[in-house]
Amino acid sequence: TQNYRITLLPGDGIGPEIMAVAVDVLKVVGKQFDLEFEFQEALIGGAAIEATGEPLPSATLDTCRNSDAVLLAAIGGYKWDSLPSNLRPEAGLLGLRAGLGLFANLRPAKILPQLIDASTLKREVVEGVDIMVVRELTGGIYFGKPKGIFATETGEKRGLNTMVYSESEIERIGRVAFEAARKRGGKLCSVDKANVLEVSQLWRDRITQLSQEYPDIELSHLYVDNAAMQLVRAPKQFDTIVTGNLFGDILSDAAAMLTGSIGMLPSASLGASGPGVFEPVHGSAPDIAGLDKANPLAQVLSAAMMLRYGLDQPKAADHIEQAVLQVLEQGDRTGDIISPGKNLLGCRAMGDALILA
Amino acid sequence: TQNYRITLLPGDGIGPEIMAVAVDVLKVVGKQFDLEFEFQEALIGGAAIEATGEPLPSATLDTCRNSDAVLLAAIGGYKWDSLPSNLRPEAGLLGLRAGLGLFANLRPAKILPQLIDASTLKREVVEGVDIMVVRELTGGIYFGKPKGIFATETGEKRGLNTMVYSESEIERIGRVAFEAARKRGGKLCSVDKANVLEVSQLWRDRITQLSQEYPDIELSHLYVDNAAMQLVRAPKQFDTIVTGNLFGDILSDAAAMLTGSIGMLPSASLGASGPGVFEPVHGSAPDIAGLDKANPLAQVLSAAMMLRYGLDQPKAADHIEQAVLQVLEQGDRTGDIISPGKNLLGCRAMGDALILA
Ligand SMILES: CC(C)[C@H](C(=O)O)[C@@H](O)C(=O)O
Ligand SMILES: CC(C)[C@H](C(=O)O)[C@@H](O)C(=O)O
């Protein structure tokens, strides 16, 4: 038996209900594959603010550090939107990324044949789309200094942030991306704004240099505005994309939306060593929280990514992904992905269907 | 007779051929509306680099300053891609924007019923889409300092740029956007990343404050990642969008691509006073330059925007826009927007069709 300590961060909104489903699925799969999970729950986001006044209590970070992987659901809600930014749920997420050194964010956007009609794009445009966005997650303008709101001599305020990357930061995310491309279609597109930004020129130079170590990977470069366009125009041209923190935030969401069902999309955030964090791409959906209406599949697929990338248990991961495909194949749908003739299930019932699948 | 001095900047690639069509159309419309245009041509971009070694010779900026409006075609090409960035064609464009103080960039993305099938999105998703992106154009990370590539103590290089906005910069673009929304559907969506960036917090605060002066406009706020998503998910929800330089670059291109035909989209760049610059959204398309294959309609519609926003001649602008709709209605198409059963025309022939329309 293989033992794993897993920290669960259910967070806010629909977080607890989708997390409950993922845990049930993990327990069943654990039995089948002889894996034993020790789950420990901790507070983050709005839930942590309510209980402790802080979005990321230090006890939470300690618990995460002492585990083999972290499964996160979702954070945030209207309730905390007017707090100062360093006390908001989002600050907990950024603190977690920085605290665990999670510099590599993997965001797959894959069209599932069963859900292709959920896309707002034409079938022939999105059929077969399978994109992996590799986003740098602990650098760039999210963490660069100086930053803040300052008064000028005239008394006028100026807000500023700094977009900054060092060669070593670029190289380390570049390596993750080249390796990911190697396991996929062998194509890597690096996205920057090198025609305007110096930080992007360094990015492009370093990625280009690095490509000499990966002669089997076909490297291309796009400016971020063109990349946003190409995702809408012809998304099938993309295999793996690598980009900085801010551009990755924007492009991975655009790519996710091509699938039409962000309730289906997981993500992984990984560091050089230590536990990774696995979480759905979607938010906490406070409007449907507690109503048993949420789609738990992105959370369940995040658990699969945890098995694959965090615990090196690809077979158990495959098994979960197959179960998801099977429930879709048999017509089970939550409200966000329902279409005529399919079976509408609640969050809990979708979990039960997965366990039987 | 009203007299206007117009600077023409044909630039690179297909620039000269589409500019020739726009000039012919302006001449004809001028006669009909009793407007006299004095055209003066000047160098910019790659063409200027070849002739003078600089992407924006000072003579060009002087000529522009001494005119009532500037009509620009397109700049850039593979040929100049390996030059250092301050000598590249793009530097000419940025210099023109800064030199003329063009802080407001208006980028309409409107679905034309005749071309709706060119969109990669489903008809029901894009039918009726009519978005105006108001992008700040002389501030933000495009011009913020410090910037550059620096060596750290360890010898490692760091690239950095500064995203900065002052209250007065936010206010002045905000006013343009609120006024634009007032002439349109009365809805304004401000896009930022206020959950992470201080510069965006100032942006959101200042726009919110300003909205008190525009009680008739319905203001909303979106984070840039969500905005990119919503443009793909449900673009009809947008009327007018206001955002900073970098986010505007990305989102206006994504919005443009929703129409499926960026060969049709014009833009206007305006300052507090002095001449504006009017140009197509598309690039210089070096691969089809000189082949009489380019679509001149975005250039012609840019001339219409010049008449409307630069010279206050809305009737002449209407007339050009009607002519464009009429040639589309009668089935005339260039190669980029051709579909079965339509008449394929070259660039020149499309110009002739417009003049007869
Ligand atoms: C909530 C927010 C801070 C976060 C980000 O911008 O990284 C989110 O949009 C994401 O992509 O995970
Ligand atoms: C060519 C480039 C400098 C420019 C920009 O980024 O502003 C272009 O993409 C645009 O949007 O006009």
TrEMBL record, chains A, B:
Its main location: cytoplasm. The record marks Y142, K193 as: Important for catalysis. It comes from the Bacteria. NAD(+) binds at residues 77-90, 283-295. GO terms for biological process: L-leucine biosynthetic process. InterPro entries: IsoCit/isopropylmalate_DH_CS (IPR019818), IsoPropMal-DH-like_dom (IPR024084), Isopropylmalate_DH (IPR004429). Keywords: Amino-acid biosynthesis, Branched-chain amino acid biosynthesis, Cytoplasm, Leucine biosynthesis, Magnesium, Manganese, Metal-binding, NAD, Oxidoreductase. Its EC number is 1.1.1.85. It is found in: Cytoplasm. GO terms for cellular component: cytosol. Binds 1 Mg(2+) or Mn(2+) ion per subunit. Its cofactor is Mn(2+); Mg(2+). GO terms for molecular function: 3-isopropylmalate dehydrogenase activity; magnesium ion binding; NAD binding. Catalyzes the oxidation of 3-carboxy-2-hydroxy-4-methylpentanoate (3-isopropylmalate) to 3-carboxy-4-methyl-2-oxopentanoate. The product decarboxylates to 4-methyl-2 oxopentanoate. Belongs to the isocitrate and isopropylmalate dehydrogenases family. LeuB type 1 subfamily. HAMAP family: LeuB_type1. This is 3-isopropylmalate dehydrogenase. It comes from Nostoc flagelliforme CCNUN1. The gene is leuB.
